[in-house]
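FAQ: What does the model actually see?

It sees only this:
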Amino acid sequence: MGKVLLSGFLSLLLLGLPACSDSGAPKKVSLEKREAAGPSIERNGEAPIRIAVGGMITPREGFVYYRGFLDYIGKKLGRHVEFIDREGYKEINQLLRSGNVDVAFVCSGPYVEGHREFGLELLAAPQAYGQTVYYAYIIVARDSPITRFEELRGKKFAFADPDSNSGRLVPEFMLAKMGQTPDSFFSKYIFTNAHDKSIKAVAQGIVDGASVDSLIWDYADKRNPQFTSKTKIIRKSAPYAIPPVVVRPGLEVNLKKALKRIFLTAHADPEGKEILNKMMIDKFVEIGDNAYDSIREMQSWVKLQNKKRTP
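And it is asked to produce this:
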């Protein structure tokens, strides 16, 4: 059964990792002071553009470059950009739904959910390493004798955000194909709410394995391999469409066009290119909704299997 992970509890507190209950619902404890996301305050007669950063393709240490890119957007628009920092994908979707956020970097799974539930719209997608796809990496400690996902049976495992594609849905899909669930397969599991925290949890021996975003693992391994060097990849998933940039439904058409133009041309501007290089993004490109169909199919299949198991 999935249980609260007591082993290494002090380490969990230091990492800020919320534990998982038997129901699979993550329990969060945040010590961060966060700004409210209420109505925007107008400046010079224009409300600021509110942009949230949730689904990054870098670890949190690359966060400063996202903030730099948001400043770049504001400069190009000639409008104030208000930055909204949220770790939880579900919360960002709620803010987009309510109109309290205009633009967001989100994970692929939450985009699919938001598009279905309230018409969330694609704006652009990052191209990294020449591709607009990413993978789920199943990782274990470098010195672990485990070499296959199946060998994690009865072990401790870390998921990322509960709504993450690579950090939860993909490993659940792998388990469902084996006729298993996280509760039946793992002895214990946790939700870290961040891929870099999952990497750290494996590197520090808090869990035996984790499923993480390939782009974040690769970025950390190239820029700061302190923890990735203590892990190894034992399985690489099929490719999935990369976490996109989205806009809330109903965003003013001319503003949406201006935003898209800034994203799609940033790589051709020296200032924009410098920021993108630090984010390890080649450029932003247009992407179609059908690119995310494989995630929809996976979600539907997992839900069907879970329904079949329900008495």
